[in-house]
Amino acid sequence: MSIDGLTGLVRTIADFPKPGIQFRDITTLLADSAGLRELVDGMAGIARPLDPDLIVGVEARGFILGAALAYALGKGFVPVRKAGKLPGRIVGIDYVLEYGTDRLELHEGQVPPGARVVLVDDLIATGGTAQAAAQLLREQGAEVLMAIFAIDLPDLGGRQALEADGVATAAIMTFAGH
Q: Signal peptide position in this chain (predicted)?
């Protein structure tokens, strides 16, 4: 399947979650077995040469893609969750969003110092969540080898912001606009 074939499987929903936003919904791609396989294989092709110790997925669609990628590479998977979702001892980071703040957390000790990790999410827009996840991982002593996304929205500058923060990035698809 070509990149055009993959992008054709992504549904665009106008004015969600607010007017002017073109929401890129990957659930339609995930439901297509050939599309899902092509997407995960593309991510695996990028991540495999890095030989990470762990794949880390950001809630929520990053869980789907990250777990599939971890399986494809024979690696472990670690979820980075929104606040209050994990039992037991956690570590976290607060970060600023366009309209407020949020928090990401993971289990304390689940990413050991020195671990080489690849961060995965479905989409990079402004980059705030990915930057916070990378910082949280670095605070645990991990080396963030790369962040891989299904979709990049380059007009929002997230990829450039993440790379300026020292995190190499890759995306399988690119969509113009917001």
A: none
